[in-house]
Amino acid sequence: MAQDLELDLVEIAPMAKPPVCKIMNYQKFLYQQKKKAKEIKANSAKMIMKEIRFGPQTDEHDFQFKLNHAKKFLEEGSKVKAYVQFRGRSIMFSEQGEKLLLRFAVELDEFGKAEQMPALEGRRMIMVIAPLAKIKKK
After folding, report:
1. Of 27-41, 64-78, 89-103, 123-137, where does mean pLDDT reach its minimum?
2. What are the respective helix, strand and coil percentages of the chain, to the nearest 5?
3. What are the helix (H) ranges across the chain?
4. How do residues 45-69 score in pLDDT, each as one tens digit?
5. What SS3 state is found at 70?
6. Phi-psi region of 65 (alpha: psi -120 to 50; beta: other; left: phi over 0)
7. What is the pTM of this model?
8. Range 120-136 average pLDDT
9. Are the C-beta atoms of residues 128 and 114 closer than 8 Å to each other?
10. Alpha-carbon distances, residue 115 vs 10, 66, 81, 101, 131 (angstroms)
11. Domains of the chain by start residue, with CATH
C-alpha cells in the first residue's frame, strides 16, 4: 500500500503483537520535527549578562552608583558579572578587591544570589550574580 501511494512504511511499535506500522512521508516528518525543535529553541529565554567594573580603590559614591545599576539589571532578569580590574602593581591589593566584591554580593542579597564567588583570573577578580526571580523558576 505504501509503494502504491509513493510513501514510506514506518514501524512505530515493534514490540507490539502484531507490530504497529504507519504509512507516512518520512522526510516531511523529519522536516517538521526539526522545525518544531528550532521554534522551541527560539522561544526559550536567553540569559543576558551585564558587566560592572570596579577598581581596587573604588570610592564609596562610585560603589553605590554601580550598586544601583546592578539592582536595576537584576530586577530586569539579567545576570550581573562584577569584576575588579587590577592594573600594574595594584594586583597586590587582591584581598581589597575580594572584600569589595563580597560586600557587593551582600548588598545585592535581596535582588540576586552569588552564582560564582570571587575568583582571580589573570588581572581580573570576577564574580557572577544571578537574579532571584530566575533562580526560583528552576
Report:
1. 123-137
2. 45, 30, 20
3. 2-5, 26-43, 60-76, 94-107, 132-137
4. 677 889 999 988 888 999 999 999 9
5. helix
6. alpha
7. 0.61
8. 81
9. yes
10. 47, 19, 10, 13, 9
11. 2-43 (3.10.20.80), 49-137 (3.30.110.10)
The contacts of residue 56 (CB under 8 Å, 6+ apart) are: 84, 86, 90, 93, 94, 96, 97, 100
pLDDT of residue 56: 85
Sole residue written with cell 540569559: 47
C-alpha cell at 78: 539579567
- Whether 114 and 127 have beta carbons less than 8 Å apart is answered as yes
Inter-residue long-range contacts of 89-96, CB under 8 Å, 24+ positions, other chains counted: 90/55, 90/56, 90/57, 91/123, 93/56, 93/57, 94/56, 94/120, 94/125, 96/56, 96/57
For the segment 79-103, what is each residue's pLDDT rounded down to a tens digit?
Answer: 999 999 998 888 887 888 889 999 9
Query: Which residue is listed with cell 552608583?
Result: 65
Looking at residue 34, the DSSP 8-state letter turns out to be H
Letter for the amino acid at 55? G
- Mean pLDDT over the full length of the chain: 88
